[in-house]
Amino acid sequence: MLSRACATAVMAIALILAAAWSLPGCKPTSTAEQAKRPNILLIVADDMGYSDIGAFGGEIATPALDELANGGLLLSNFHVLPTCSPTRSVLLSGMDNHRAGLGTMGELTTPEMEGIPGYAGYLNFEVAPLPEVLKRAGYHTYMAGKWHLGLDENTSPHARGFEETFVLLPGGGSHWNDRKPVSPPETMVYWRNGKEVESLPDDFYSTRYYTDRMLEWIEQGRADDQPFFAYLSYTAPHDPLHAPKQYIDKYKGKYDQGWDSLRQERLQNLKNLDIVPNEAVPFPRLPSVKAWDDMSPEERQLAARDMEVYAAMVDYMDEQIQRVFDYLKEIGEYDNTMILFMSDNGANGALPTAYPGQTEEYLGSFDNSLDNRGLPNSYIEMGPGWAQASMSPSRLFKAYTTEGGIKAPLLVKVPGQPAESGGMSHSFVHVRDIMPTLLDVAGAAKPDTIDGREVLPMQGQSVLDLFAGKSETAYAGASRVGYELFSFKAFFDRNWKIVWMPKPLGTGNWELFDLSKDPAELRDLGAEQPEKLQEMVALWHQYKKDNGVLDIVPEAVK
Questions:
Q1: Buried b (16+ CB within 10 A) or exposed e, 338-365
Q2: Phi/psi zone of residue 529: left (φ > 0), alpha (ψ -120 to 50 degrees), beta?
């Protein structure tokens, strides 16, 4: 087997070849040389919790992702944005969400935001999208799954650099072919290469169909030996929770012990894996969530089924990911492919009533009986009890700038590394650094202009040395990251973090935490260290100025 040093040398040679390919007049003279350029496979799960997969201590069967962790790098301190589209805007631009166009989610823009590029509600044209840059560098670019960064032809993924696409344009909805949205005002619109798809196959299930299309395109592109960038953007396990019945049945009885027990079990597993410190304690169950032992037998039965469906979705997604891995091995491209797997935010603890425009009549139209839960014409969700367990020990879940909203699993395999090279890093890494890293792998430089328009320089930086095992930490300043979404705010500086949230979720004042000792954000140190608090608050205000943050408090949180 190759040693880590040899593997690093192999990758360095590959990067030199890739860089040569990206220069005008310097294309390799043979297809054999061209084939050495690494492929890129970026897999994103939607609303998946921190400890759901086996590599992070979860009880759900995820052998494909566990294998990826064993042969790559597990990153325990990876941070994203609190919700889907803001994370995706940063992922595909290397920029803060307020610079990339998703200062808020597109479906939640207000009149005060009109005309401000950072609040366009789509991936704006001041940034250079990752697929467009890679396409210009000679990559095939494919996307299957959730887009959520624009709803018309000009802002579709096909217009932003992907040559082959099958995408769900909005944020979510049914995983079956009935296209039932999350709330009445929403629509479930699928597009194929910039044009609306009129109908779906009768046996459509989102996770399988996205995988089918991606495998089809990779196979079709093999003829010219160009490398590929494949963005497999699953909508699983976003609500409504849906899965094939045989996968739901696999988890029958698995969660009868309830969310209080699962929260403790997940935390202990994380400790056993050295992912969180031994002294970590979980953020307490929210007052709005019933203790499992206080629930009626019927309530427990229905809630347990919901988690069974959720687990089935993750299990099925892992099986589809295994199909992709097996195919890449079959065609001899697995070792030559940079692979990243991540979730876009914390687990979703919201109820269906939280979606804008939701009505009781719409929710009442579904059959959520025990036997139909998770099957067509059902509408169920994870809910806050299971979401807290999934994000243990962190505070809260999706939508918030607390750790439960923005800490996500990340697995990485660098091309050329041997199968036994798995490891773990506790270094802080932010989603803004993914695009620069992938450009580094591809040997592709980000342009200053695209189609005659100037584009902003990336704020993120490459962390390839960390991913490749050449460095134990990311670059200096990697942890200095600011946040604002829906008026929830935060700022990081190494182990320090400040958070601002309105009452009752927060104090209505800035809170200061030392995450190295308090990952659950339980002990506010602001009164004990007022100078450090003020220093951090000043850093957030500079972040606000640098990124054009409006800092508008929505009516929903006033």
A1: bbbbbbbbbbbbbebeebeebeeebbee
A2: beta
Question: Looking at the whole model, is its pTM more than 0.90?
Answer: yes
Q: State yes or no: pLDDT of 514 exceeds 50.
A: yes
Q: Look at residue 34 and tell me whether its pLDDT is greater than 60.
A: no
Q: Spell out a b/e string for 115-131, using b for 16 or more CB atoms within 10 Å of the CB, else e.
A: eebbbbbbbbbbbbbbb
Contacts 24+ apart (CB under 8 A), 156-163: 156/191, 156/194, 157/131, 158/191, 158/193, 158/194, 159/194, 160/123, 160/129, 160/131, 160/132, 161/129, 161/130, 161/131, 161/132, 161/133, 161/134, 161/135, 162/131, 162/135, 162/231, 163/135
pLDDT tens digit sequence for 350-381: 999 999 999 999 999 999 999 999 999 999 99
Q: Is the pLDDT of residue 144 over 80?
A: yes
Q: Over 70: is that where the pLDDT of 7 sits? A: no
| Known active-site residue 6 | no
- Region 12-35: mean pLDDT is 37
pLDDT in tens, 221-276: 999 989 999 999 999 999 999 999 999 999 999 999 999 999 999 999 999 999 99
Task: Give CA–CA dist 18/34, Å, rounded.
Answer: 8
Phi (first) and psi of residue 445, to 5 degrees: -90, 140
3-state secondary structure of 158: coil
Residue 158 annotated to the active site = no
pLDDT given for residue 553 in this prediction: 66
- Three-class DSSP category at 262: helix
- CA–CA separation, 351 vs 363, rounded Å? 11
Q: Which domains does the chain have, with CATH numbers?
A: 4-478 (3.40.720.10), 479-558 (3.30.1120.10)
Helix residue ranges, H only, 234-278: 245-250, 259-272
Options 79, 84, 158, 238, the catalytic residue: 84
Please classify residue 224 by burial: count the beta carbons closer than 10 Å to its beta carbon, then call 0-12 exposed, 13-18 middle and 19+ buried. Answer: exposed
Q: Is 217 helix (H, G, I), strand (E, B) or coil?
A: helix
Checking if the pLDDT of 35 tops 90, the result is no
Note if the bond before 277 is cis, omega within 30 degrees: no
Considering only CA atoms, which of 467, 465, 464, 463 is closest in space to residue 422? 467
Catalytic residue among 79, 98, 140, 148, which?
148
Write down the pLDDT at residue 28.
38
